[in-house]
Amino acid sequence: MALGTDFSFALFFGQQGAGAEAANGDQALGPPSSGNDVSIQNTANRFGPNQFLGISAQNDVVATSGPAQQQFVLIDPKNPGSLAPLTNGSNVAVQSTTLGGYLLATTVVGYRPPPPNQAKIWYKVQLAPTFSDRAAQWTIRTVPPGTGPLKPGDRFCLVNNKPGLGNKTVFLSRYPVPDKVGVIDSCDPAATSSEHWTLQQPFAPPK
Hints:
By secondary structure, the protein is mainly beta. 5% of the residues lie in helices and 31% in strands.
């Protein structure tokens, strides 16, 4: 899939990826827009409050309550410079502004529950160093009663429509074990669902 033709676009998705521009990173988060620096919080609270998306030393996506490696920027892959409000159906690439790579769903099994629930499998999400077509396939699906532009605290599911997992639609999810994140083939509507996320203002960089 062609993502663009001009030189500036090629630079944006170059070898090192693209960090949020300083002007965008300084903007208030309300409502969240493409290009804003954000933290992505899981709302399940199954393992305690304030669990945020983070990156491990092995470039696996994890859930952490620590201050490091929790800042991301959601980029419109068709218009990387866009600051348009994020809404239900927004297609995004999710970039770590700490490490510069992009969230990518993989075919690597991350967690398989013990019997009798072995059919329910979570696959790892990892940080890819460069942009790809698969990294652009995340889509925001708001959870009722959220409507209109996404507001801080609005719950949503993050859908990946092209992870290479038998052409299944899969959702970013906490595992049913601490600190692990992957994708699974459903998004539970229950308020405590491990597939529900919110956008928050980013933490201050660790000192």
